[in-house]
Amino acid sequence: MRCGSMPVQSETLRRTGGRSLRSIVFEAETIGARVRELGRQITEAYPDGELLVLGLLKGSFIFLGDLVRQIERPLQVDFLAASSYGRGTTSSGEVALLYDPETTLEGKHIVLVEDIVDSGNTLRKLIGMLESRRPRSLTVCALLDKEEQHPSFPALRFVGFKAPPAFLVGYGLDHAEDFRHLPFIADLM
Ligand code: IMP
Ligand code: MG
Known about the structure:
Blueprint: H1 10-16, E1 21-26, H2 28-45, E2 51-57, H3 61-68, E3 76-82, E4 97-99, E5 109-117, H4 121-131, E6 137-145, E7 156-162, E8 168-169, E9 185-188
Parallel strand pairs: 2-3, 2-5, 5-6, 6-7
Antiparallel strand pairs: 1-9, 3-4, 8-9
The structure holds inosinic acid and magnesium ion.
Residues 59, 84-85, 91, 114-122, 167-169, 173 line the site of inosinic acid.
């Protein structure tokens, strides 16, 4: 599902304050089409029961906003926040919960929405914490998956794109809090 890399246009430099990106990896239109498809899949996967879409902050905020508008059944939205990489570009292995969802999880179908799965450490820890709250089901919807970086994940049922082994920014993904607002996903220099 990866679309061809192409040179980043000069108008992008306005958005980044002149900081160069290597290339656009997924164009806004490509992301939009895939998010519509994921919304259709999630709609079909949950014919009954209460559905709670749980966004992992901050990286999922744009993806989640677009995704829930493509899900054509009743649902509720909440968020949780886990610690991030800080200024680095590799996983530290430590995951701390900074914000806990207020909504009850018990008896509900939970779709945990993540921007990108890398080592899978974040998800592994969160899945353990959330399972203990006895949801009816718990699955993960990740926009991007660096699938070579982690063993297979039964809970990872919905994936937007297989991600290349690069550090990606845009459409919610950051580097040191920058670039989240880009409408496309790019490869950092
Ligand atoms: P994991 O715990 O190693 O799977 O890392 C997952 C988290 O690391 C994601 O939720 C992102 O916040 C961050 N991350 C991993 N790879 C990237 C990337 O290429 N760009 C931006 N953030 C990333
Ligand atoms: Mg994240």
